[in-house]
Design a protein that fits this description.
It contains four helices and eight strands; from the N terminus they run ββββαβββαβαα. By secondary structure, the protein is α+β, with helices and mostly antiparallel strands. A five-stranded mixed barrel has the order 1-2-3-6-5. A two-stranded antiparallel sheet has the order 4-8.
Length: 150
Amino acid sequence: MKVLLISLALVVSVHDGDTLKLSDGRTIRLEGIDAPEIAQPYGIESRNLLAKLTSKKKIRIESHGKDRYGRTVGKIYVGKRSVNQSMVGRGAAWWFRSFAPTDNKLRRLELDARKHKIGLWKSAHVIAPWDWRKANDRRAKIASGAKPDY
């Protein structure tokens, strides 16, 4: 896949474990990973790790474009270190198989984090963020009186 954009920027804030805001106003969604939502178990820890790795640091972004929410999706580097890989390897995010099915490095990092019970994998009751969002969307629909779609 051809890289459309390579740029340098300064991180000014971190929304959660896979989304951050840059000094130029762009919102970046880390490619190939999915971190727990803030309200989900390990969500705050995941966000804090991404902040520790990136806040007030110059990052390099390799992007292939934007997602449906208008966020730039990309691989983030601090120096030569891949932040995307660090998040998965430290057990703070999942390899997002449906968006990066051929990323064997992320796959291996997740398997290793699971095996060694690193980060979120210490818990016996781990819920993938995509499953958590789906379950909570249904609960919100039920609470609002709307018919859930299941």
